[in-house]
Amino acid sequence: MAEYHLKTPLSEEAVRKLRAGDIVYVSGRIFTARDSAHRKMLELAKRGEELPFDPRGLMVYHVGPVVRKINDKWKILVAGPTTSARMEALEAEFIQTFEIRGIIGKGGMFEKTTEACKKFGAFYGAFVGGAAILAAKAIEEVEDVFWLDELGIPEAVWLLRVNRFGPLVVAIDSHGNNLYLDVLEEAKKNLKRLLKL
Fold it and tell me: How many CB atoms lie within 10 A of CB 48?
């Protein structure tokens, strides 16, 4: 297990060095996207329309932040991750289409996302649930927000500048390893063994 301090935009080479179980801290730009934002961005890409920001090499954070506007600037008050499994049906296409290099979330993802991480050079960084204030402290600035009126605060895309965001545990690496699937497989084996008793 190793510790890495990475700065976005991330290269494929940097991501390929990571292994399941490693600890990562991220600085630079990341962006938020939940279900509606994933669909919105993919629809725009399918129509050949430009996004209002460049997601290539960035990390997507599965979060619906709690925000406040102070004067003319947005401030993230709380930013705990949402359950990533909700995005499983969309994430592989999202990784391929937008060349993102990492996902931040909780609860893990499954086979399709694991395969996309392996094929395109991305990883899943698990952030601990219940540490929403810790996450918010690492967010230095809200650079922009997109589709706020259309999608609402939790589902809008927030472009953030972060400093040492983490710790993230590499739960899915770019070599086909998935700690969540490993645990699930072990649990199934144990269940079969117990049922034979």
Answer: 6
**Predicted confidence (pLDDT) per residue in 146-188, tens digit:** 999 999 999 999 999 999 999 999 999 999 999 988 666 766 6
State the catalytic residues.
Answer: 38
* Predicted structure pTM score: 0.93
Tell me the sheet residues that pair with 60. 31, 103
- Domains of the chain in start order, with CATH, are 3-196 (3.20.130.10)
Cβ–Cβ < 8 Å for 26, 161: no
Distance (Å, rounded) from C-alpha 174 to C-alpha 102? 10
CB 28 within 8 A of CB 120: no
- Other C-beta atoms lying within 10 Å of the C-beta of residue 128: 15
